[in-house]
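Milestone 3.1: sequence recovery, worked example.
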């Protein structure tokens, strides 16, 4: 019972070998086919991709009316398991109060106080909001529990909606450990990590993350971050790092050295950081989070310089209650194009193919791949940045 999707003005496949040969370099990067069609099996797998006039006969047909189809966005950095409200903190930043990570404690208190059902409902609503904006795959971190039980609870709830869960017990040092940071690192790398990975192949998390930020009194320095990451790697988890968000620091080079899948933020980089990321191409992705710079009045990373240096660049939302309460990948794409020097094609590729790579996924529209698709109410992917703020893209329900 196959379904033919036709009436596709422009199909982004993320497979350059499948592009229709148009001279635009962005089309080559994205593997664009114009006047396209694709066939999806009843179990949600792509069976055929190509020009509409070459499409095979199928059991069912759906005409998309001249819209563009893209791979569903892969949001590879989110913090969706939280309760509470920090809008006053945002307002304060807009009038000059700097961000230093201290507001995370407010979300920790609210999250600890929330019931499982309350958190579950909040997460489900946020995931639905993301799908309504074209996101079909999401990574979710813990990090607003910071006790053994609350971190496990957060991961269990996240695991109900995604396979891509990340243990972030090392988000900040909670207030009850402020005078004994070493004891908290021991808790993260000992009992917490043991519990997270206790079930082996069905562990609650596939990755471990750490907020490596010497410019925050609440986050972790380079030595602490190394201890946490090495413990996570020894326990079989993939590595991710919050690095170089508030100022220059060791996070980026540590991530590259240890083979992290991704180092995220990358706001303050020096030449050595860029060289390390370029040398780690194919292993470590630089995930840029422009919604954070928008929400904190920080400088934007230079996406153009990173791409020109040969760095793998991804885009994600960093949806969280403090520094970026936006779940919108189209918003991140528009900011990347407007503020970070990326082309519309590079930004779309970063939010799909490269972001997927940081999760160990392949996000192409090609035979044998899952039909994780999004549809744009416009004839071209260019409208994602061109019509910033307008809800023109959504996950395609088959």
């Amino acid at each position: 019972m196959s379904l033919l999707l036709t009436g596709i003005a422009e199909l982004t496949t993320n497979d350059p070998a499948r592009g229709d040969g148009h001279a635009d370099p962005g089309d080559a990067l994205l593997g664009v086919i114009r006047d396209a069609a694709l066939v999806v099996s009843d179990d949600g797998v792509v069976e055929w991709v190509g020009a509409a006039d070459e499409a095979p006969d199928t059991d069912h047909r759906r005409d998309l009316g001249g819209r563009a189809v893209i791979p569903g966005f892969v949001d590879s950095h989110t913090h969706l398991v939280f309760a509470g409200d920090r809008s006053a903190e945002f307002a304060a930043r807009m009038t000059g109060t700097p961000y230093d990570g201290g507001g995370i404690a407010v979300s920790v208190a609210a999250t600890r106080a929330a019931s499982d059902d309350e958190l579950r409902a909040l997460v489900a609503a946020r995931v639905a909001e993301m799908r309504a904006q074209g996101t079909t795959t999401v990574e979710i971190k813990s990090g607003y529990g910071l006790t053994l039980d609350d971190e496990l609870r957060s991961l269990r709830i996240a695991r109900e909606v995604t396979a891509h869960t990340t243990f972030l017990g090392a988000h900040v040092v909670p207030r009850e450990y402020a005078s004994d940071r070493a004891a908290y690192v021991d808790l993260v790398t000992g009992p917490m990590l043991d519990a997270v990975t206790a079930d082996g192949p069905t562990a609650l998390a596939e990755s471990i993350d750490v907020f490596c930020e010497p410019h925050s009194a609440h986050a972790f320095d380079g030595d602490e971050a190394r201890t946490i990451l090495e413990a996570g790697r020894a326990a079989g988890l993939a590595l991710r790092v919050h690095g170089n968000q508030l100022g220059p620091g060791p996070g980026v080079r540590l991530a590259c050295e240890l083979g992290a899948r991704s180092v995220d933020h990358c706001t303050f980089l020096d030449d050595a950081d860029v060289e390390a990321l370029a040398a780690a191409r194919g292993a470590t992705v630089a995930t840029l989070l422009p919604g954070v710079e928008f929400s904190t009045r920080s400088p934007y990373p230079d996406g153009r310089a990173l791409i020109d240096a040969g760095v793998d660049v991804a885009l994600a939302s960093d949806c969280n209650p403090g520094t970026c309460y936006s779940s919108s990948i189209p918003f991140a794409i528009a900011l990347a194009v407007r503020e970070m020097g990326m082309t519309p094609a590079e930004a779309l590729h970063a939010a799909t193919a490269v972001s997927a790579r940081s999760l160990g996924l392949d996000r192409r529209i090609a035979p044998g791949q899952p039909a994780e698709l999004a549809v744009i109410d416009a004839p071209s992917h260019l409208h994602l940045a061109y019509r910033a703020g307008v809800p023109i893209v959504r996950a395609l329900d088959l």
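The mean pLDDT is 96. The chain has two domains: 3-71+364-395, 73-357.
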